[in-house]
């Protein structure tokens, strides 16, 4: 009666109708003789999204956090020294997990609003002549702060130092949405989740693993059971899983991948850049607001974290948007609670949908007392979108071409 409640958090994201329909089916036999015929090409196609032709991709029932743990426990040993950095809630949680799993963490603390400190990584790797550092961790897109880091620069630092450490990357809010090149960047373990760029409900932890990381798994001694690579490899090679898989999510994943490939990954990346640029154009017009990302080189094309104006509680903005305008905006996490809110602009989105999100945010900001001119930010986004959005090619036009 009152229309839809609008979702503009940075995950879970909106689910396309095609994907929802693909998951709306009776339960099936995950041991059926033909189930493997569905799974083998699905796993092969996942490698295309991660942009790797070697290694393999594991699909765990769980979340990105579970894939984090799988990556660590299958390739490292307790006491191993690792290089990490903290510059937001999720990079901070990854450090916490590594420490709790018994790794010797060399953590570099970075001001929130900046990303992976590539120059500091380079210096520490160059100084590690004995190669005591066994792995380097980098959060590609920090969802809490709207910051994207340069993963290629980390590979350059490793190569310049001639360092053999494994490169772990958290790509939960980047893979499937913005440029990610696992093989070209020499990434050894890349983590993603189903609920963001893959446009699915939460429930799948996706982990791409290089041949180098698979070799490290043979030497790893850390206790591991549910997330065991060995168990997964043995069954995945036949098209099955060592435990009950979430079959409906896998059916949805098949359609999600087909949609990504149908659009073309490069086109998907470019669309996210257009959408992110339009959101940033609006924020620039909101008096007293600014991005948490403190320079253009850190701007994320999947999520914008926005400082509320001085004296405005961002929690009130979020609550007003939800209760009054039926729009979910992302919360400020940890030290950003009450200071910032977030707008997710990833997955199945278009400019008109984002204009609605920006309008709701403007109204909620004004209700909270912000001195923002009505429609000014939305107008800036409209112009950005109008000038950059290509026409959608219809199926008949595509056939004619």
Report on the architecture of this protein.
- This protein has 401 residues and is of the alpha/beta class.
- The chain folds into 2 domains: 18-262, Type I PLP-dependent aspartate aminotransferase-like (Major domain) (Aspartate Aminotransferase, domain 2); 264-388, Aspartate Aminotransferase, domain 1.
- Helix content is 42%, strand content 16%.
- The chain contains 14 helices and 14 strands.
- The protein has helices spanning 17-23, 35-50, 64-75, 89-100, 118-127, 151-160, 211-219, 229-236, 247-263, 265-284, 314-325, 351-367, 376-388, 395-400, and strands at residues 6-8, 56-61, 81-86, 104-109, 133-139, 141-142, 147-148, 166-170, 189-193, 204-209, 290-291, 303-307, 327-331, 340-344.
- The protein has a 7-stranded mixed β-sheet with strand order 2-10-9-8-5-3-4, sandwiched between helices.
- Helix 5 packs parallel to helix 6 (151-160), helix 9 crosses helix 10 and helix 11 crosses helix 12.
- The radius of gyration is 21 Å and the shape is globular.
- Residues 394-401 have low confidence and may be disordered.
């Amino acid at each position: 009666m009152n229309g839809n409640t609008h979702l503009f958090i940075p995950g879970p994201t909106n689910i396309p109708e095609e994907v929802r329909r693909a998951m709306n089916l009776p339960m099936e036999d995950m041991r059926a003789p033909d189930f493997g015929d569905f799974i083998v090409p699905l796993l092969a196609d996942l490698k295309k999204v991660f942009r790797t032709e070697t290694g393999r991709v594991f699909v765990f029932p769980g979340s990105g956090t579970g894939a984090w743990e799988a990556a660590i426990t299958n390739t490292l040993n307790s006491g191993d020294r690792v290089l990490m950095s903290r510059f937001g809630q999720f990079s901070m949680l990854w450090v916490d997990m590594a420490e709790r799993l018994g790794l010797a963490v060399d953590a570099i603390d970075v001001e929130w609003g900046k990303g992976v400190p590539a120059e500091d990584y380079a210096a520490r790797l160059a100084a590690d002549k004995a190669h005591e550092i066994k792995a380097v961790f980098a959060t590609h897109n920090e969802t809490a702060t709207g910051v994207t880091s340069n993963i290629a620069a980390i590979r350059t630092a490793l190569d310049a130092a001639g360092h053999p450490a494994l490169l772990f990357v958290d790509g939960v809010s980047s893979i499937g949405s913005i440029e990610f090149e696992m093989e070209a960047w020499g990434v050894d373990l890349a983590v993603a989740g189903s609920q963001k760029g893959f446009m699915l409900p939460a429930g799948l932890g996706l982990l791409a693993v290089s041949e180098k990381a698979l070799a490290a798994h043979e030497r790893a001694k850390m206790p591991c059971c549910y997330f065991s690579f060995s168990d997964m490899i043995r069954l995945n090679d036949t098209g099955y899983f060592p435990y009950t898989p979430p079959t409906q999510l896998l059916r949805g994943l098949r359609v999600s991948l087909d949609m990504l490939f149908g659009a073309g990954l490069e086109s998907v990346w470019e669309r996210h850049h257009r959408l992110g640029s339009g959101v940033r154009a609006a924020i620039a017009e909101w008096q007293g607001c600014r991005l948490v990302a403190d320079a253009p080189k850190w701007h994320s094309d999947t999520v914008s974290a926005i400082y509320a104006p001085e004296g405005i509680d961002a929690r009130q903005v979020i609550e007003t948007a939800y209760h009054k305008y039926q729009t979910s905006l992302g919360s400020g996490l940890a030290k950003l609670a009450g200071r910032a809110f977030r707008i997710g602009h990833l997955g199945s989105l278009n400019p008109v949908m984002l204009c609605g999100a920006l309008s709701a945010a403007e109204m909620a900001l004004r209700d909270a007392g912000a001195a923002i001119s009505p429609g000014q930010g939305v107008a800036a986004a409209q112009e950005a979108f109008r000038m950059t959005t290509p026409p959608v090619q219809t199926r008949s036009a595509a056939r004619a071409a």
